[in-house]
Amino acid sequence: MVESIVLKFGGSVLKNQETIGKAAGIVLDLHKKGLNPVVVVSALFGATENLMKLAENTNKDIPSDIMDQILSMGERTSARVFSAALDSKGLKPIIVDPEFDNWPIITNDKHLDANPIYNDTDKEVKNKILPLIRNGKIPVVCGFLGKSRTGKITTLGRGGSDTTALLLASCLNANELVLVKDVETIFSSDPNVVENAVPIKTLDSEEALLLSSGGAKFLHAKALNYNKSGVKIRISSLEQGAQTGTIIDGGSVDLIVEQPSDPITMVTIIGDKVLNPNQIQKLMEKINEIGGRIISLTLDLKSTILYVVNGKNLADILHKMVIHDKLGKAVSFYDDLRIIIIKGSALETVPGLIQRVTQPLARNDVNVFGLITISSSIRIFVSKNQVDKTVLLLKTALLSIKQ
After folding, report:
1. What is the torsion angle, in degrees rounded to the nearest 10, for the CA atoms of residue 382, residue 388, residue 394 and residue 400?
2. Residue 278 maps to which CATH number?
3. Number of independent structural domains in the chain
């Protein structure tokens, strides 16, 4: 495999002649160092929004496949402008466009939010992009876009250019993917929202997934599903180039089933009002004090449900606390439960996933004592004697989804 480095330039940094020139300069520097750059570009700053507004104002019921064709013009224009910038620096760019024979990104036919088909794309990348690199060309790939098996242009939805870049980097088994954005690093929180945000040097892929699923905007969670080769990702800026910034290390966070062995007790407190923060804090402190550990808590108008590790011997103490501190009217306990966790970035790309994994459980008489979604995970509570059966059913359901 030819060594390569993939660079993605977002629309926020492709604003004008100056910023496009700086971006092209980064590519030139890497080329001079003997690397083989592959470039992915978003639409020029503001172009996609302008195209969408124009189309919607022209026809509020515009068909989704026509909208995809209109929106594609943003990236297709950007690729041509960027190729011209590279050409001016003496490089040999080649535009990779869905209308050309060299296009590699194959997707399903869900317009406006298509998902890449990894195996098909991997084959096309090796057949079409690798020969360009070997011949000294610098592919300039339209981000955000795909092409269905029936030959129609598709778009990849929010964060689509990041998905394009990570998909290409994985299929090329690139040395690194550099996402060039308008900030030089990932911060501990949004500097525009909090004071004294600090830069983060490294994240693993699961940490990156949790942050992006929670609303951080450095990388869309969907993109992480396509890092099958475990390519290192760098978040950097025009000013920093491809040498510094936050490193995200690790492969894709695929759909998997985890089965922790800790015994769990479901504690249900009923009352006529929602517990306040002080009451919840006292409850948590008491459970920790007597050897338990809360792994989940849900509140309703008339009930509080806690899932507690090592909670089997807490009944008498918790009952006394509930009555004495007026936390509720009564408390019940269900012992010998286990938690089963489904997690992975692909959760966001599978419509109706919860239904698809729980229906087989219902059909096979598995009683679900609780189901909670947290970040990119589904947590299911079942009785101890149904764990093996549940895990097998869930793994079978996920296998059919992956196929």
Report:
1. -170
2. 3.30.2130.10
3. 2
Range of the domain at 29: 5-249
Is residue 53 domain-shared with residue 70, that is, in the same domain? yes
CATH number at residue 231: 3.40.1160.10
| Mean pLDDT (10-residue bins), the chain, 403 residues | 89 94 96 95 96 95 96 98 98 98 97 95 98 97 97 93 96 95 84 85 81 75 84 89 80 73 92 87 89 90 91 88 89 93 68 82 93 82 93 82 54
- Which structure tokens are listed for 18? 């100056």
User: Under a CB-based contact definition with an 8 Å cutoff, are residues 166 and 177 in contact?
Assistant: yes
Is this prediction's pTM over 0.90?
no
The rounded distance, in Å, linking the Cα atoms of 51 and 70 is 7
Q: Are residues 203 and 290 in the same domain?
A: no
Inter-CA distances, 188 with 211, 212, 375, Å: 10, 12, 18
> How far, in Å, CA of 13 to CA of 242, rounded?
14
